[in-house]
Amino acid sequence: QLSVRLMKVAEYVQAGAVVADIGSDHAYLPCYLLHNGTASRAVAGEIVKGPYESAKKQVREEGLESKITVRLAPGLEAVEPADGITAVTIAGMGGSLIASILEEGKGRLQGVERLILQPNVHAKAIRQWAAQNGWHIAAEDILKEKGKIYEILVLEPGAEEVQLDAKQLLFGPELLKQQTDIFKEKWQREATQWRAIAERLENAQQTEDIRTRREQLLEKIALMEEVFADEN
Ligand code: SAM
Q: Does the keyword Methyltransferase belong to this entry (predicted)?
């Protein structure tokens, strides 16, 4: 049984897609996409030998060896032009790592119609990468599973019509519009942590670095208060 999180990622993969799942671990996501008929073929990429072997084993056991190619490679180096990839999924890593995988592999994104990304933290890094590289946010989603909250970002080629502002970069333009209960819960949790850290920084010795970090936190707290005040 696939996690609710990966099932949600799968929902955003376009029908008939040729998928590259980067950091695939057990290759559960591509196996699911092949079995349910969403994807026609897939590549599962892994940088670490152990998970790569797990992916190979899973694909073999599910009888999908003719449809899923498992490759041991860093990031988008798992993708070759002949694969004809139309969708890339990257899930279960930090947003900064996902953004760096996209940055390093952007030469391999030709023909890709959709990036479906699920950062565990720091989705902002992905929104910033998108803004700098001519991709726009086609959809965003947020879900909670076993007490953890996850964001999903769907990017498509073509720049945003209007540049995202600081609030949209941090909270997500679509998530801001939706303002679901899970969204509110996520940012209330974050704000509690930010306030605690800001307080500690206030009491610490005031070096340049400490001052900057505190200011950045206070800026984020102010943005958050604006978002929640907008509601009323
Ligand atoms: N995508 C799966 C999921 O969402 O359940 C697995 C997530 S697992 C926490 C992250 C996986 O990404 C690990 O198996 C790790 O080896 C792999 N990984 C980390 N950095 C990578 C990179 N630069 N290229 C390919 N795989 C990477």
A: yes
